[in-house]
């Protein structure tokens, strides 16, 4: 049995070492996603960079392609960061990009043939991010 402390300094007993290792692995995985090695960066192709200029946002978005897969990296105005693998589907308008982890709201991105990044849902595309020429 392992003993760990949570944020309020309460002792939590973990009955199985396997569960503790599972918890540790999720932290390791999160850190791995945030800290790419230089070797990992070299084969990545930057598809485009955009800024979400809607009120109270200002997120910086970069779309990468590596080994035939798309990755969407977002730096939020509050300093938070996300990196998500995207599922891609060729469409007449461009490339439909959906979070591999899924989206309960049915939202997705559309990378148009003109390299615009549109935010869409099942009804329509409701916002186009501004191209970030400084990041390009």
Task: Summarize the SSE layout with pairings.
Blueprint: E1 2-5, E2 11-14, H1 17-34, H2 38-41, E3 45-52, E4 59-66, E5 69-75, E6 81-90, E7 94-99, E8 108-112, E9 117-120, E10 125-128, E11 130-131
Antiparallel strand pairs: 1-2, 3-4, 3-11, 4-5, 5-6, 6-7, 7-8, 8-9, 9-10
Outline the structure in words:
With 136 residues, the chain is an alpha+beta fold. It is 16% helix and 46% strand. It has 2 helices and 11 strands. The protein has helices at residues 17-34, 38-41, and strands at 2-5, 11-14, 45-52, 59-66, 69-75, 81-90, 94-99, 108-112, 117-120, 125-128, 130-131. A hairpin with a 5-residue loop joins strand 1 and strand 2 (11-14). The mean pLDDT is 78.
Q: Globular, elongated, flat, extended or rod-shaped: what is the shape?
A: globular
Q: Which percent bin holds the helix content?
A: 10-25%
Computed Rg: 19 Å
The largest β sheet comes out as: 9 strands, antiparallel
Mean of residue pLDDT values? 78
The assigned structural class equals alpha+beta
- Count the E strands: 11
Tell me the series of helices and strands, N- to C-terminal: EEHHEEEEEEEEE
What are the defining features of this structure?
single chain; 136 residues; alpha+beta; two-stranded antiparallel ribbon; 2 helices; 11 strands; globular
């Amino acid at each position: 049995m392992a003993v760990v402390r949570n944020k309020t300094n309460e002792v939590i007993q973990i009955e199985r070492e396997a569960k503790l290792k599972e918890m540790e692995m999720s932290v390791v995985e999160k850190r791995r996603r945030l800290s790419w090695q230089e070797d990992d960066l070299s084969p990545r192709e930057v598809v485009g960079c955009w800024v979400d200029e809607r009120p109270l946002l200002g997120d910086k978005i970069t779309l990468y392609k590596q080994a035939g897969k798309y990755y969407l990296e977002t730096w939020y105005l509050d300093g938070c960061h996300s990196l998500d693998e995207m599922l891609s589907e060729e469409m007449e308008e461009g490339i439909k990009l959906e979070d591999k982890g899924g989206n309960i709201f049915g939202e997705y991105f559309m990378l148009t043939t003109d390299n615009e990044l549109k935010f869409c849902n099942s009804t329509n595309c409701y916002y186009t991010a501004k191209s970030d020429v400084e990041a390009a």
